[in-house]
Design goal:
97 residues; mainly alpha
Length: 97
C-alpha cells in the first residue's frame, strides 16, 4: 500500500500502438455491457409503449393531439428495437445461433 510510483510510472504514453490498444480494450468493455444496457432501457420503453397504445386503442384515454400518439408509437418502436438488439447481441456473444 505504501509503495510509491516513480515518475516514469505516472507518465502518459503517447505511442500510437498503445493508444490503439487502449481504444480496442475500451470498445470491448462497452460491447460486453451493450446487451445489458439495451435490455435495461428497451424493456421499460416497450412496456410504456404497449400500455399507452392499449390505453389509446381501448378508449381509456385518448391523446389531445397527434404528437402524443406519434410519441407513443416512437417509444414503442424504440423499445422493440432495443429489446431485439439486446437479444441479438446476447445470443451472438454467447455463441447460440
Amino acid at each position: 500500500m505504501d509503495k510509491k510510483a516513480s515518475k516514469e510510472d505516472r507518465t502518459v504514453i503517447m505511442s500510437d500502438k498503445y493508444l490503439s490498444e487502449s481504444g480496442v480494450q475500451g470498445g470491448k468493455v462497452v460491447a460486453e455491457n451493450l446487451s445489458l444496457i439495451s435490455f435495461i432501457v428497451g424493456i421499460p420503453l416497450l412496456i410504456i409503449g404497449l400500455y399507452s397504445l392499449l390505453n389509446i386503442s381501448l378508449g381509456w384515454g385518448f391523446p389531445n393531439n397527434m404528437a402524443v400518439a406519434i410519441g407513443v408509437l416512437l417509444v414503442l418502436a424504440i423499445g422493440i428495437l432495443m429489446t431485439l438488439g439486446g437479444y441479438t447481441i446476447y445470443r451472438s456473444k454467447n455463441g447460440k445461433t
